[in-house]
């Protein structure tokens, strides 16, 4: 995280004008030392102070929603090993009432597979929709949870369209087509019906596996569309 403005007085708690690097205290000592070395190099290169905060994982979890929702751009840098296969899985977060906290599930979005990033699911774990229109679909309760996750992460509404599929109401046929193409290379089936994006919703889907993947790939591709491709918002 980086602040802006004049450098604060020595000893000040104000982070304006400096870079703050937050590290999970449970990481191995060698990893923490590497972060310290990287921070020192960053301070030399950027010409601004770099503060390294080594904190408990509970603190990292607590600040994630605020950082994710704050104005700005977040970028995740995957390790070379992760980049060669499927994307690593983010922790599954729940609200106090036990329901999934879809809106706070992710802190960053890695590069899309469409542009060279790791696919969200490996080819062997790909999510496929039914071959025809008569395949079994998710239960009404599971469909309702999928719809809630889509609304929380994208603001788009969704509805069951046929057995085994759920339709996401996009703002235009172009948006639906682009999201469809981007999602397919994340190893999740998708189809287009006009301004609707159709995603699979199978009978055996579990919240912490298939449903989470479904919502994640839509959230990350929708995020890219809004930030980079949506007409009127291009750089």
Would you mind describing this structure in some detail?
There is one protein chain. The strands form 2 sheets. The protein has a 4-stranded antiparallel sheet with strand order 3-4-6-5. α4 (140-154) runs parallel beside α6 (207-229). It is elongated. The protein has 6 helices and 6 strands. The chain has 235 residues and is of the alpha+beta class. The protein has a domain at 80-229: Aspartate Aminotransferase, domain 1. The longest helix is centred in the C-terminal third of the chain and has 23 residues, at 207-229. The model is unreliable at 1-11 and 78-88 (pLDDT under 50). Helices cover 36% and strands 13% of the residues. The chain starts with 18 loop residues before the first strand and ends in a 6-residue tail after the last helix. A hairpin with a 2-residue loop joins β5 and β6.
């Amino acid at each position: 995280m980086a602040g802006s403005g004049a450098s604060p007085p020595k000893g000040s708690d104000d982070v304006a004008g400096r870079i703050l690097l937050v590290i999970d205290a449970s990481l191995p000592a060698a990893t923490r030392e590497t972060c310290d070395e990287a921070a020192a190099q960053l301070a030399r290169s950027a010409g601004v102070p770099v503060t390294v905060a080594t904190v408990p994982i509970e603190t990292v979890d607590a600040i994630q929603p605020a950082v994710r929702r704050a104005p700005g751009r977040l970028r995740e840098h995957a390790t070379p090993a992760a980049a060669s296969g499927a994307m690593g899985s983010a922790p599954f977060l729940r609200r106090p009432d036990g329901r999934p906290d879809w809106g706070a599930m992710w802190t960053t979005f890695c590069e899309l597979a469409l542009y060279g990033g790791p696919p969200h699911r490996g080819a062997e774990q790909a999510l496929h929709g039914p071959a025809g229109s008569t395949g079994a679909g998710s239960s009404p309760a599971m469909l309702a949870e999928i719809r809630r996750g889509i609304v929380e992460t994208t603001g788009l509404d969704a509805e069951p369209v046929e057995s085994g599929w759920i339709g996401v109401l996009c703002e235009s046929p172009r948006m639906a087509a682009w999201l469809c193409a981007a999602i397919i290379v994340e190893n999740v089936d998708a189809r287009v019906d006009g301004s609707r994006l159709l995603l699979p919703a199978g009978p055996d889907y579990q919240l912490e596996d298939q449903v989470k993947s479904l919502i994640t790939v839509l959230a990350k591709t929708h995020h890219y569309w809004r930030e980079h491709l949506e007409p009127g918002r291009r750089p």
